[in-house]
């Protein structure tokens, strides 16, 4: 079965000024490479978009809310309001039961983590693209936080692969 690409919160507020994730300059091309490879293989692509509230930078209709990549015909957009992209969304109806998933996006320690853990609980084999997810500096520097999440997800059962080796078929 061809893997489904899940792009989580690949939105302007995460990758473009004024406040992109610290690794935006390297994460953005890695995401682009994986997306291009998925499209070339005819893989299903799901763009998950966070709908912020209040004064969040990703409130629907604001520039920060917009997706970085155009959504091509046949691709899906799933809007969410929680870190788990499955919760309260139609995501589970868009990915076949047990289909392998390739996950990339933001933020490692929130939406990428929660969505990957839920996908594993639902029986999906998951590959996390190690150079195509990121977060902001917090109690730990962003790179350390992303690496810790990758290690946690690997322990939970996710496979880890760089954007250079991820394939769709």
From TrEMBL:
<keyword id="KW-0378">Hydrolase</keyword>
<feature type="domain" description="Isochorismatase-like">
    <location>
        <begin position="4"/>
        <end position="148"/>
    </location>
</feature>
<protein>
    <submittedName>
        <fullName>Isochorismatase family protein</fullName>
    </submittedName>
</protein>
<dbReference type="InterPro" id="IPR036380">
    <property type="entry name" value="Isochorismatase-like_sf"/>
</dbReference>
<dbReference type="InterPro" id="IPR000868">
    <property type="entry name" value="Isochorismatase-like_dom"/>
</dbReference>
<dbReference type="GO" id="GO:0016787">
    <property type="term" value="F:hydrolase activity"/>
</dbReference>
<dbReference type="InterPro" id="IPR050272">
    <property type="entry name" value="Isochorismatase-like_hydrls"/>
</dbReference>
<dbReference type="Pfam" id="PF00857">
    <property type="entry name" value="Isochorismatase"/>
</dbReference>
């Amino acid at each position: 079965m061809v893997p489904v690409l899940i792009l989580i919160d690949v939105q302007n507020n995460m990758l473009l000024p004024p406040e992109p994730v610290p690794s935006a300059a390297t994460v953005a091309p890695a995401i682009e490479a994986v997306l291009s490879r998925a499209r070339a293989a005819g893989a299903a692509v799901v763009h998950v978009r966070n709908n912020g509230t209040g004064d969040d930078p990703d409130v629907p209709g604001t520039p920060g809310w917009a997706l970085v990549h155009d959504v091509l015909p046949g691709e899906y957009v799933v809007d969410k309001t929680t870190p788990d992209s499955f919760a309260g969304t139609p995501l589970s109806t868009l990915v076949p039961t047990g289909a392998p998933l390739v996950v990339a996006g933001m933020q490692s320690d929130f939406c990428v983590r929660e969505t990957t853990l839920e996908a594993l609980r639902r029986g999906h084999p998951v590959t996390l693209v190690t150079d195509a997810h990121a977060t902001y500096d917090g109690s730990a520097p962003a790179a350390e936080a992303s690496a810790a999440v990758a290690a946690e997800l690997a322990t939970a059962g996710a496979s880890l692969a760089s954007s250079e080796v991820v394939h769709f078929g």
